[in-house]
């Protein structure tokens, strides 16, 4: 159901765009089985988190634990998850915790470990939703509270997970396209906070290469907390946790066709496709970073000034210009003359 917010029209990476679960990502597929795995879903009591929990329950894990603040909501959600289990041996657990409090997160994780063993799959789905509004008149303290709250959730979740993770740990991070698309009216605070979290997840993935980390945009999903227009939550996180090893460190949409992604696995894995990066011209590279030397910055500024003059309204665009540049090789100190025809 649409609300007053005008959302950006998404561009699909795959030819097929899904708004409903489909057979290729069905939890009932043997290839997507979660047999023997302990799954923990943070923020699993309602909405997207509960749909994720139900989907994992259908994949037959050893256990599935939903974590959130309100115990009564967790217990209600656990009933839905229990009704969906495909293996009667699957344990459905609940843990109450404020995910912004590291001590409470540690206690919740340890309780799971004490009951069923180490955690294999962690879904970071919890989020702090701020009041809507434009950034121009936004209260700074509200923005800081939102950024801090959502960043604490991600950091506590990941840091506490590492010491008690299973041998092949998986972290699935529910992100949002709002972190990397053009600004959407009214959602400045939420978008900025989620962009911060997405970059934090990038660093966690880089620093812990043994962990399979994927961030996913779940689609526009109508929940009690947001009122977005409805696109049904998918069951793709099972796929991301099992077959989609080539998506490690990537950002994907739940709406994209998983089979088409798999067909491009080699290309996706070997390039920066689906990585959340902004890069400039690779003039001077150090590792994967790109820098401009001070001389180059001056060159760019001088050329920009000349272009601005040559192509100002009423000016001819056919004139030539020349710029004297110092050779970037410090051992020669020679000057070069570069001439460009406009």
Automatic annotation (TrEMBL):
Xref: Pfam families: adh_short
UniProt-recorded Gene Ontology molecular function terms: oxidoreductase activity
Domain of life: Eukaryota
Keyword line: Oxidoreductase
Cited PANTHER family: ALCOHOL DEHYDROGENASE
Family: Belongs to the short-chain dehydrogenases/reductases (SDR) family.
Record's protein name: Unnamed protein product
């Amino acid at each position: 159901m649409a609300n007053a917010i005008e959302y950006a029209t998404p561009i699909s990476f795959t030819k097929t765009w899904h708004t409903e679960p489909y057979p290729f990502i069905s939890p009932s597929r043997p290839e997507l089985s979660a047999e023997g795995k302990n799954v923990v879903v943070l923020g699993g009591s309602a909405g997207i988190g509960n749909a994720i929990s139900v989907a994992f329950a259908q994949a037959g894990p050893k256990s599935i634990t939903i974590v959130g603040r309100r115990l009564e909501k967790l217990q209600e959600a656990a009933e839905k998850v229990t009704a969906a289990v495909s293996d009667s041996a699957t344990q459905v657990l609940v843990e109450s915790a404020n995910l912004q409090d590291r001590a409470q997160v540690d206690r919740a994780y340890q309780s799971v470990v004490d009951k069923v063993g180490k955690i294999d799959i962690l879904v970071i789905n919890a989020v702090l939703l701020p009041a809507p509004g434009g950034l121009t008149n936004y209260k700074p303290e509200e923005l800081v509270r939102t950024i801090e709250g959502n960043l604490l959730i991600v950091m506590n979740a990941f840091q506490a997970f590492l010491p008690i993770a299973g041998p092949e740990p998986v972290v699935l991070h529910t992100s949002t396209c709002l972190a990397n698309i053009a600004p959407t009216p009214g959602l400045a605070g939420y978008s900025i906070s989620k962009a911060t979290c997405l970059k934090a997840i990038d660093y966690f993935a880089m620093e812990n290469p043994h962990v399979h980390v994927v961030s996913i945009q779940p689609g526009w999903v109508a929940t009690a907390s947001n009122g977005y227009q409805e696109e049904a939550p998918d069951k793709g996180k099972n796929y991301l946790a099992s077959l989609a090893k080539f998506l490690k460190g990537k950002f994907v949409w739940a709406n994209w066709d998983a089979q088409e992604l798999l067909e491009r696995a080699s290309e996706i894995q070997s390039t920066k496709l689906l990585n959340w990066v902004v890069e400039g011209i690779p003039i001077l590279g150090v590792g994967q970073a790109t820098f401009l030397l001070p001389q180059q910055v001056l060159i760019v500024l001088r050329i920009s000034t000349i272009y601005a003059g040559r192509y100002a309204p009423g000016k001819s665009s056919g004139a030539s210009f020349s710029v004297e540049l110092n050779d970037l090789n410090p051992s020669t100190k020679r000057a070069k003359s570069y001439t460009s025809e406009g």
